[in-house]
Amino acid sequence: RRMWFQQDGAPAHRSRAVTQYLNNRFPNRWIGMGSRVQEWPPRSLDLTPLDFYFWGYIRDIVYSQKLTTVENMKNRIRQACRNINVGVLEKVRDDFHHRLELCIQVNGQVFEH
């Protein structure tokens, strides 16, 4: 299967260089501001797996115990990322699919999840 790329509308992600790279690397297979296929809805944290799942998951693990050094924090982040299992990723994928279906049902308008 051919992979698609999704990105948010952060200013650093909208530069001409980034857009050209994505057009070359993922021709007609990327979603985001400046995409030829589909622009990503602005401020759509519920539709971005890194926002609705990943960052909170990592934060909870990293800060579950007091941090003593920056290196300690980096090590916890690395360990938390290594310990994410396939079952969790499958659940995130399924939840993401459900959120997309909700967005389609309301024609891209605001919805509660």
Automatic annotation (TrEMBL):
One of its GO terms (molecular function) is nucleic acid binding. It comes from the Eukaryota. InterPro entries: RNaseH_sf. Signal peptide: none annotated. This is Transposable element Tc3 transposase. It comes from Harpegnathos saltator (Jerdon's jumping ant).
